[in-house]
Amino acid sequence: MTRGDEILATFAKAQADLEYLRYEHYHDDDIRAIVEVVGSKVERFFKTAVFPGSDVTDTFDRVINRLKSAGLGKNTRDDLHGFRELYNASKHDPLQALSLKATINTV
User: Fold this and answer.
1) pLDDT above 90 (res 98)
2) What is the DSSP string of 43-61?
3) What are the percentages of helix, strand and coil residues in the chain, rounded to 5?
4) Which of 64, 68, 8 has its CA nearest to residue 38?
5) Cα(33)–Cα(38) distance, rounded to whole angstroms?
6) Which residues, including other chains, have CB under 8 Å from residue 65's CB and lie 6 or more apart?
7) How far is residue 25's CA from residue 75's CA, in Å, rounded to a whole number?
8) What is the separation of C-alpha 49 from the centre of its chain, rounded to a whole number of angstroms?
9) What pTM, to 2 d.p., does this model score?
10) Could you tell me if residue 71 is left (phi over 0), alpha (psi between -120 and 50 degrees) or otherwise beta?
11) What is the pLDDT of residues 7-21, one digit of tens each?
12) Rounded CA gap, 25 and 48, in Å?
């Protein structure tokens, strides 16, 4: 399995886990736990597999912007920025309410 396959599997698992929450009683922290795992793995993937040797000061935002040089279009980068914003809100603002539907759509 390639690193790309691993990241796709991470997204698929996150999507399935989020979908499962639709049928359960859940809290925002349940959504946060899923988003933070996938967000951390995606950020690490970009910094190590896509741009190996990235500076430790490179932000997730900066790495996504660098994807333009790798040929990723604006719509894809915009989608990744939307995911990054969800991940950052989840990680840095634990009091912010998270919509399960919006999170599923973003992931």
Assistant:
1) yes
2) HHHIIIIISTT--TT--HH
3) 75, 0, 25
4) 8
5) 9
6) 77
7) 34
8) 15
9) 0.89
10) left
11) 999 999 999 999 999
12) 37
